[in-house]
Amino acid sequence: MPLNNFFALTFAVLLAGSAAAQNQVQSGPSPRDVVERLWVDATAGNLLSTSGLKRTSARYQLSPDFFREPIVVISNDWAVGEPRIEGSTATVVVGYFELGKLDSKLRFKDIPDDPCAKKDFAMHKLTFVPTFTSMYASDGKTLIEKKPSYPAWQFTDPVGWRWTTVNTAIRYTMEMRAKTSDPEIKKNADKTIGTLMRYH
To answer: How far apart are CA 130 and CA 105, in angstroms?
Structure first.
């Protein structure tokens, strides 16, 4: 066999083996799919409250300080990059523009510079690990059985911050304003809504 043909065949075999290994690791949702689902949940406002997080079916482990931190408000446009996969680990980067932060009293603080002047990036690390299927009693709380299931990509670290897009932040501020009787918070909300509308 000519040397060139040998190298071509060897390269093709290596590529096929690499693709087979990659397909084995990527069965089920890909790392990009998992990260994109998290960001879609954030866009929908599901990271802003305990009731919202219940709608995500406990997909994410949260850090102890998750609800103590202010809500990061980002641009309505964001983009999930292609994953970098190394064996059973993966890294996925998301690009976005941060506009400011919204605190528990509905006060919004802009970032000091033009938010569109510098792009921000969030790096997510994932691991391909075994998962489990849990069966509960009719009360929905009592665990009856926990069985091993297919391996899947999961976040290596707990989600440590809350964020959402400007459109959802406006809706959230209006909803929280309607629920409070505190005149100071209502005043903060009015100012915040006016500010956020500039980015709408």
So the answer is: 41
Q: 194 and 67 in contact (C-beta within 8 Å)?
A: no
Distance between CA atoms of 166 and 76, rounded to whole angstroms? 6
Question: What ranges do the domains of the chain cover?
Answer: 25-196
pTM value is: 0.76
**Over its length of 200 residues, how does the chain's per-residue pLDDT go in tens digits?**
443 443 343 333 333 333 433 444 456 899 999 999 999 999 999 999 888 887 776 678 888 888 888 999 999 999 999 999 999 999 999 999 999 999 999 999 998 777 666 899 999 999 998 876 667 677 766 777 777 778 899 999 999 999 999 999 999 999 999 999 999 999 999 999 999 999 87
Q: What 3 state SS string does 39-102 have?
A: HHHHHCCCCCCHHHHHCCCCCCCECCCCCCCCEEEECCCCEECCCEEECCEEEEEEEECEEEEE
Q: Which two tokens stand for residue 157?
A: 């670290």
Q: Exposed (0-12), middle (13-18) or buried (19+): which is 184, by Cβ within 10 Å?
A: exposed
